[in-house]
Amino acid sequence: MYYCIVYCIMLFYTDYHYHYYHYYHNTTITTASDDRGIQVVREKIKAFASGAVGTQRTAGYPCPRYKFIILDEADTMTPDAQSALRRVMEQYSKVTRFCLICNYVTRLIEPLASRCSKFRFKSLSPSSMINRLTYIAQQEQVNLGEGALDTIMDVCGGDMRKAVNYLQSSHQLSGKLIQSL
After folding, report:
1. Do both 107 and 136 map to the same domain?
2. Engineered SS bond to 33: which of 59, 73, 134, 137, CB 3.0-4.6 Å?
3. How many domains, the chain?
4. Domain containing 50: what range?
């Protein structure tokens, strides 16, 4: 999901060399499931948010006024870390934009969730998932046996990330030909 967010952020910068430099200096991505404690918020996130926004100007390419912090799987952060994040969001809201990506909005503490705009995405259609899984299998030179994709689709429940992970796991376990389970 954060690839979509990253793409949207990069739209702020129109020239490749220009956006490459400013994107990497004004954006940070943290996977909260790995870095979920209060120390990460106090040290890494606060330090990044408190830094000055780039003032470099290139003719025809104004620098965005914001830094961006993307927190993937923010719902796995501890409640103390979420409280600390809320304070950082309040303190640096003029120069920093936060994007919290989570699987379960209900796992965010209410004071944090109330400061966010929520966007919910529905599951992909089965036909588009099958098309994409077939494309991935072709690119990776994996042969799919009769009913293999149907089994993956039944198990993943409309979650594309799970479907790709099941495809990868099945390939690692069975080699080049994945049979139906």
Report:
1. no
2. 73
3. 2
4. 2-113
User: Beta strands 96-101 and 143-144: pairing type?
Assistant: unpaired
Same domain, 56 and 102: yes
Radius of gyration, alpha carbons of the chain:
20
Q: What is the pLDDT of residues 64-122, one digit of tens each?
A: 677 888 888 888 899 999 999 999 999 988 888 888 888 888 999 999 999 888 888 77
Task: Look up residue 123 and give its DSSP letter.
Answer: P
**Calpha distance 181→172 (Å, rounded):** 15
Give the pLDDT of residue 22.
Answer: 58
Sign, CA torsion 170/34/31/118: positive
* Domain CATH number, residue 166: 1.10.8.60
108 and 135 in a single domain? The answer is no
Report pTM. 0.68
Helix extents (H) in the chain = 2-10, 16-26, 38-40, 46-50, 79-91, 110-113, 126-139, 148-156, 160-174
Structure tokens at 6: 């990253």
